[in-house]
Amino acid sequence: MEKRNTKSGGKNTNRNGLSYENHTNLDSEYDIVEKNLHSIQIQFRKNPEKNFLMTSKKKFLKCVEYDSTISKAHGCKQPDEVYIDESRSIIFILEKKFQQCGGSVCEKIQSVNFKMYHFQKLIPDYKICYIYCLSDWFKHNCKAELEYFDHEKIPYFWGNDKNYKEKIVDFILEYKS
Question: Which domains does the chain have, with CATH numbers?
Fold first, then answer.
C-alpha cells in the first residue's frame, strides 16, 4: 500500500477550509442590528442606512421562501456566507475555496453557472449573485477557470488580499443587477 499524501484530504480539508472561512469572514465589517432565529440583521459600516440579512450554511433556506418541490442540488445546500438585500431582492452567496496543493477543487469552481441556475430556480423572487472568495493557489493553478469567470463576469476575490473585506463589501453595496 502506498502512503497517502498528508497535505490534503480528510481532516486537513475541513481544518484548513474552516480556518480560511474564519479568516475571510466579514463580521468585522458590520454591526448587528438584530438577531433572529436563522439570521442576523446587519448594517455594513460603510453604509449604516442599509440593512441586510446575514446567514450561512443550513440556516440559509430558512430565511427565504423557496420552491420546496425542487430537489436541492448537491453542492448548493450550505453556502459559506449569505447576504440578503430584501429591499432590492438580491441574494449574495459567498462561496469560499481554500487550496494549497493539487486536487479536484478546480472542477468544483467550474460549477458556478449550474449553482446560479439552481438557486434562481429554487428562489425565483430574488436575483442570485454568486461570489467566490479564493485562496492565492487558484491564481496559478486555475487560470482557465479564472479566465472564464472574467468572461462571464462572475465575481471573485482573493481572501489573502489585505483589502479583501473592503473590496467585497464595496461590491455588495454597489452591485447593479
Answer: 10-174 (3.40.1350)
The angle, 0 to 180 degrees and rounded to 10, between the axes of the packed helices 112-122 and 143-152 is 40
End-to-end CA distance of the chain: 53
- 148 phi-psi bin (left φ>0, alpha ψ -120 to 50, beta other): alpha
Report yes or no: 118 and 73 within 8 Å, Cβ to Cβ: yes
Q: Which pLDDT tens digit goes with each residue over 57-87? A: 889 999 999 999 999 898 787 899 999 999 9
Whole-prediction pTM value?
0.88
Beta carbons within 8 Å of 172's beta carbon, 6+ residues apart: 44, 52, 83, 85, 92
- The CA distance from 34 to 167, in Å, is 25
Cβ atoms 31, 45 nearer than 8 A: yes
The percentage of residues in the chain with a pLDDT greater than 90, rounded to a whole number, is: 75
Sheet of 127-134: strand order equals: 30-35, 40-44, 52-55, 81-85, 90-97, 127-134, 156-158
